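Chain and backbone:
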Amino acid sequence: MVLAAGCLSASSPASKTSEPAAPPTSAAPTASGTASSDETPAGASVGRARIHVLVISDGFYPADPAFKANLTSVPANASVVLTYRDQDLNPLGKHDWTLEGVEGAQTPLVETGHEATIEFVAPLKPGEYVYYCSVPQHRGFGMEGKLTVTSPA
């Protein structure tokens, strides 16, 4: 998966819908499925990790939809820059990415072949958090997954 992000303030989550972009050059996933970055965006708290996550939906909705993510876990309280790319083979499909119970962690609806980038702060409490497509019936057809929030290092 690929993430494209501009400078966003951690205090005001934003979203942007665009054509697919090139892969990021920093914060690549490690063998453990997590990533870290030494970068501190302007306006962000010093010491808060900035994590880049790319989530792609592919398959053919409703037959075999799936989310695939380059990371499956992030540290608690990290600034998460998430790009969601809709690569559904059904050209009529529109999807989004929503992290249940986390304010600001929802992309706008994205058309096939496009992507949207948001920034939010990971929950303080470690544990498993469910993400899903909020379009009616899509979650029931399998468009969901889990993001693990780990204790800060």
Notes: The two ends are 25 Å apart (CA to CA). DSSP finds no helices and eleven strands in the chain. The chain has a mean pLDDT of 77.
